[in-house]
Design goal:
mainly alpha, Hypothetical protein af1432, 2 domains, elongated, disordered C terminus
């Protein structure tokens, strides 16, 4: 079966339930790359000034076509420092490549003071000033765009949390299940080597996997005993109903796929569509595992929690049937490296029949 590339693993820190919204990774990377470029430009500008001065001097002083090279440090300075630094490099080059160059030109090929000095110096200063102003305005516009994008993303994430909380409100016994699934799905996606934007999308979308339970009666959701066939039929409608709800907005496409197919089994025995193998989207296969893990390691109305060791054994037992075996292996490595929060099962935690554990978790 075709797989997403496996590769680098995240830093070895435990997964924590984090309700604080974080800036999207793409925006953080964009800001970091911009800062790096500006720091680099500020470091290169004085170096370029010295190199250009030596090149012009060795080329015979002035007049020479090499006198266009001072625009390089002027551009670097303007980009790295904005209006003031661009103006400063313009002034420095106006002085350095006119009177100073003439003084150190041992062969006395330089131009005497006159209009060429004035025009060239004025151009250096003007270019430095204008480029610095343009770069400063562009940087301010980019910062405003990032702020707006963060606000939009934050509103989107808050909407996801609100929707997920609405579904969870019908089943208060699940606690912070939606946040745990978010963090676990993100950790597993990152350990698979998925790009950060995709991993974050899967993580946040995982919070809405049970949104369809809004349509399931509470007496079914909270029933402490085994469900009847009729009640199971009602419970099994929640993936399709959730997908229908999320289908109204393209921004929830990943969440829609997860909601519809997070109860599909690798061998085709799941629901609602009986998909098998790679026909099940990767994000749904990821949430299939973390949803089952979290359900098994926390108390539910119909059973006591299992220990993490028992839950991991159950995942391993059902790999290839309910779960993607390669994803289970990666998830097991997360557990082995201590990246999953330890879940302390209450006294008397026990193994229960598989039909209420991995194969058909509601």
């Amino acid at each position: 079966m075709g797989r997403q590339p496996f590769g680098a693993t995240p830093a070895g820190v435990p997964i924590r339930v984090n309700r604080h919204r974080q800036p999207p990774a793409a925006l953080r990377e964009l800001a970091a790359s911009g800062d790096l470029l500006r720091r680099t430009a500020r470091l290169l500008a004085p170096v370029a000034t010295g190199v250009v001065f030596v090149v012009v001097l060795l080329a015979g002083g002035a007049p020479t076509p090499y006198l266009q090279l001072p625009y390089i440090p002027i551009i670097l300075g303007a980009y790295g420092g904005g209006t003031r630094v661009g103006l400063a490099y313009g002034l420095a080059c106006a002085v350095l490549f006119n009177p100073v160059l003439t003084l150190v030109d041992l062969e006395h090929n330089g131009e005497p003071f006159g209009m060429p000095w004035v025009v060239r110096g004025a151009m250096f200063i003007t270019v430095g000033l204008m480029l610095g102003w343009l770069f400063s305005r562009s940087r301010a516009a980019l910062s405003a765009w990032r702020d707006t994008a963060l606000q939009v993303t934050a509103a989107h994430q808050e909407g996801m949390v609100a929707l997920a909380r609405a579904a969870e409100a019908k089943d208060p016994t699940t606690g912070d299940h939606l946040f745990r699934c978010r963090d676990l799905a993100g950790a597993l996606a990152r350990d698979l080597g998925l790009a950060e934007p995709l991993a974050a999308d899967i993580a946040w979308s995982a919070m809405l996997h049970d949104i369809g339970k809004l349509y399931v009666p509470e007496h079914v959701l909270l029933k402490p005993a085994e469900l009847t066939p009729e009640e199971w039929a009602l419970m099994r409608t929640h993936p399709a109903r959730g997908a229908e709800l999320l289908d109204r907005s393209r921004t929830f496409e990943t969440a829609r796929r997860i909601a519809r197919w997070h109860h599909e089994n690798l061998d085709g025995s799941g629901y609602p569509d009986g998909l098998r193998g790679d026909a099940i989207p990767l994000e749904a296969r990821i949430v299939r595992i973390v949803d089952a893990w979290d359900a098994m390691t926390n108390d539910r109305p119909y059973r006591r929690a299992l220990t993490p060791e028992q839950a991991l054994d159950e995942l391993m037992r059902c790999r290839g049937t309910a779960f993607d075996p390669e994803l289970v292996a990666v998830f097991a490595r997360l557990a082995e490296r201590g990246l999953l929060l330890p879940v302390l099962a209450p006294q008397g935690a026990r193994t229960l029949p598989a039909d209420r554990l991995a194969i058909a978790l509601p």
